[in-house]
Amino acid sequence: MDITVVGLRVLREVAERGTFTAAAQALGYTQSAVSRQVAGLEQATGSRLFDRYPGGVRLTTAGRVLLRHAVTALDALAAADRELSGAQDDGGHVRLGFIPAAAAVLVARALATLGRESPRVRVTTREGTTPSLLRALRAGTLDLALLSSRPPHRAPDADDPPLHTEPLLEDRLVLAVPADRFADRAGVTARELADETWIAGPAVDDEPLLGIWPGLPGRPRVHHAARDWLTKLHLVAAGAGITTVPSLLLSAIPPGVRLITPDDLPEERRRISLVRSPGPTPPATAALTRALRDQASLLAD
């Protein structure tokens, strides 16, 4: 097969980004150049590598097979480049991805612990949605990812080989409201919530709107959009509206905000899990895993 390194890089980027357009932007190529590289790979392998659908592409079975080998080859080339350039092994590098709700408390505290216990380990992080982080794990551009799931907590995806998933903690959704709202009550009704102004994350194609209580009847009035949880909480403190928040962030709640729960809507629970590709765990990845596990245990107490 006549396969180029550029073609393998394009394959990995398209698999991670989910569209030819996003891959082209990340690589600094034109979309037509990305399309030509994929067409060349498909001609070389004699297989269709992506299924096209409205809004993006997905790897076929043949595409997943080639991606696994592409990740191995590209990682080997990167290692050779480091060795030839005389780069020193500084204790290991771990690439961690996380959903926004995990950043302010769980990730921050785990990195502080890791800095004290394994100072030579270097960690780079990336925030993203669960679908985008899963694609990055499969593409080999992340080593670990903190993902959220709702009951019944199925496997993160259906691809082979299965990803290794370790549940870290159970969390529940609560409402963040200005301190003077609802007269210091512990709960509120769905009918009352229908009249509120909401603060929510911007809508994206692969994830539901975050910040609105799931299943709330009617059409919520969203006046403010922000992805960052702490931004949303400070907007709540300013009286701009209300939002949902994981109880995980209890210690990060700013003054002027209090937490309540709906009286007549189902409880919303979430699980945060640590997900990685199958296979041996490098020492640096194991060290970060321990730090995340320890902090999750403390938060669960």
Q: How would you classify the helix and strand content by structural class?
A: alpha/beta
Biggest sheet statistics: 8 strands, mixed
Low-confidence stretches: none
Helix-residue proportion: 25-40%
Q: Give the amount of beta strand, in percent.
A: 15-25%
Outline, from the CA principal axes? globular
The helix count comes to 9
Radius of gyration: 22 Å
Secondary-structure element series: HHHEEHEHEHEEEHEEHEEEH
Number of strands: 12
**Mean pLDDT across all amino acids:** 88
Distance between the termini: 55 Å
What does this structure look like?
The protein is of the alpha/beta class and 301 residues long. The chain has nine helices and twelve strands. It has helices at residues 5-17, 20-27, 31-45, 61-84, 103-117, 130-139, 190-193, 229-237, 283-300, and strands at 50-53, 56-59, 93-98, 122-127, 144-149, 164-178, 187-188, 197-200, 221-225, 243-246, 257-262, 269-276. Helix 1 (5-17) crosses helix 3 (31-45). The N and C termini lie far apart (55 Å). The model has no long low-confidence stretch (mean pLDDT 88).
